# Entry
Amino acid sequence: MKAKFALSLLFLLLPWLLKALGSYAALGSYILVWGLAAMGLNLLMGYAGQVSFGHAAFLGLGAYGAGLTLKHLAPSTPLALLLGTLLAALAALLLGPLVVRLKGIYFATFTIVFSQLFYFLAFQWNEVTGGDDGLRGFARQDLHLLGLKVDLTASEAYYYFVLAVFLLLAYLLWRAVDSPLGRAFLALRENPLRARFLGLRVERYLLGAFVLSGAAVGAAGALLAMLINFAQPSMLHWSTSGELVMMAFLGGRYRFFGPLLGAALFRVMEELLSSVTEEWMLFLGTLFILAVLFFPGGLADFLRRWAWNRR
Amino acid sequence: MDLFLLQLLNGLVSGAFYALLALGLALILSLTRIINLAHGGFLVVGAYLGYVLAGLLGFYPALLLAPFLLALLGVLLEALLLRPLYARDPLESLLLTFGLALVLEEAVRALFGPVGVPFRIPEGLSAPLFPGTAFFFLTRYRAFVLGMAALAGLLVFLLLRFTALGLYLRAGAQDREILSALGTDVRRLYTLAFALGVYLAGLAGVLAAGQLGLSPTMGTGLLMPSFVALILGGVGSLGGSYLGGLLVGMASGLAGQFVAQASEFAPYVILALVLLLRPRGLFGQEGFFE
# Structure
């Protein structure tokens, strides 16, 4: 109970704590946004047991969807979030039937290759996406709640919007995981053949996990675009997909909030290392290799065992 | 017509790089059941090794030596990092090769800087092959790349088809449990296949450096079409992956003749068609994707 209280306080005061530590408020939003994306991916990776190296495509679709909405359609932050999410979900729904027939390393390879298609689309379709320069010329808008105007321009204000969306989506993800649907995902992970014999339609459940996780990552992408008021092709690059996989794995894919922990670890280490060296990825890559070899359960698992041993 | 031939040839040269990479990927996959995401990283390291060695010894010794040194590095990394994972979920090996890809590429960036460096090829290779004719666009270097790719493909074929070692490798690809039960140390075969695959990546790296120039990101650009080639050729078929590379290259080249951007998209259109019409690829074994 004490721990939960401390954790809630931490997230409520995160922007101010970060500033007090000499960092900046937006880092809190970054952690939540990437955490949400990694948790979305983890629905597929940790629960349904299929690793996608292509989820950056959904992150990018969410980002471009939100940006284009704000730029051309309507100046509304919630609408941009909604349409970005829907665009990513739609792409997952179209792509899903092609890839869910594959399993394991073949699933991973196909998702990489297909996501690069979206990367090239963002890169080449200058008239719509702004090409290599990225999409500019939009900004997150004030929120109108029950006649009340909430100014989201400040990083701190936007952080609380991100926190609210994060909590809502994390709750929805938790409901999905903590349900017969979630048990079916686990069955797919543990023994797909047996799941099939039990009458589960493996491909259909996998498609469900794929679309839900794509949508969650798309929402994170929309939040990210409005955080920096910018969308760029590198959001869709397969190395970004790899970052999501690394976050989920480093944090612990067998725990619901593990990927959030991984995202926090990843972004904080990036902040600390990139002030020292250009090649901070070298260190995170090495850390990731060591984690795969020695801590396949990630940080969450490690902390849990440590707490258990201290008891 | 000349333009058509030019694009076809351009495509074929890129296809030669894809073919070498896809063949290496297929060799590694057929024995270790790992899709080596670090293959592009190995290619980059091989290319820069070639760059350093070419500065010291000249182009041809570098072309011979760099892939060999890279293969030694591959053996070391395989023994150190991948071997402990063979008994575990294959997905963990895949994740490890992704981490390795990052580390290799970033190490090159740290050592040589993020900007590309020029790679000089010998004077004799930069001239046209048939000067004064309509085929002026066929430089000797392109012909050399095609010849080297053909030679490498032929040597791998001969090795697999006509040597005792090749017999073991093919047996391991077919059923490694049985081979292991018959008393063969399959782990040594894994290492050998990995070394051979990485060697081919190094060869492609040095050759590609002469054609496309050097940059730390050159690996990714070449790796994606190679994945498509691997799948198009059919997982489990070495010859198929090689042919797939050439086909993907030519299709990209030809598509680029009509719309410049289409050459980037051609591999993905091929991939979608393969998945819809023939999921096992051109020469794939039954049961991989079905």
